[in-house]
Write a structure and sequence with these properties.
This protein has helices at 16-27, 42-55, 68-75, 87-96, 101-111, 135-154; strands at 4-10, 31-35, 59-63, 81-85, 118-124, 157-162, 165-170. The chain has 174 residues and is of the alpha/beta class. The chain has a single domain (7-169), classed as P-loop containing nucleotide triphosphate hydrolases (Rossmann fold, 3-Layer(aba) Sandwich), CATH 3.40.50.300.
């Protein structure tokens, strides 16, 4: 039996998080939300609070900006749905910490097939727009593209959300 891993990609406000939450909720068991964001200002704090309120009390929220593989090892379990939101914020945190992104990506990709339960990874597709005008933004876009390719190769399912609609890029709907 292959791992139950889905990568959900999309642009800003594309419906990717809502779709991913539905995949986890449909499983019917415990739900774990791994939040990779870091709160830097009041506006971000409001966003985080709203997202938590929208999910409701049936979710266990784990805030982990960097140690994604360790957090997945600790929380993935049979009949449990785990949602990681999102990989691009995780990538940002790794870049800010000057971490070895290739090694972190490889560790995550190696871990995914071993995880029990359902794991849904959300990420922003940032490579569809113009080439950024500065080196940092170009490095981020390049790292994100490589990260997405690596995860997509390992995941049985890849979904691209556009205007709230899921488009199945790899695999079929659950």
């Amino acid at each position: 039996m292959s791992a139950d891993v889905t990568l959900v990609l999309g642009g800003a406000r594309s419906g990717k998080s809502r779709y991913a939450e539905g995949l986890v909720t449909a499983l019917g068991g415990p739900r774990v939300y791994i939040a990779t964001s870091q709160v830097w200002d009041a506006e971000m704090a409001e966003r985080v609070a709203k997202h938590r309120d929208d999910r409701g009390p049936d979710w266990t929220t784990v805030e982990e900006p960097r140690d994604l593989t360790g957090t997945l090892r600790r929380h993935a379990a049979e009949r449990t749905g785990v949602l990681v939101d999102c990989l691009t914020l995780w990538l940002t945190n790794l870049m800010m910490a000057e971490a070895d992104i290739a090694a972190e990506t490889a560790a995550l990709v190696a871990l995914l097939p071993t995880l029990p339960g359902r794991v849904v990874l959300v990420s922003n597709e940032v490579g569809l727009g113009i080439v950024p005008d500065n080196a940092l933004a170009r490095r981020f876009r390049d790292h994100a593209g490589r990260l997405h390719q690596s995860i997509a190769a390992a995941a049985p399912r890849v979904v691209l959300t556009v205007a709230g609609l899921p488009m199945f890029v790899k695999g079929t709907s659950i």
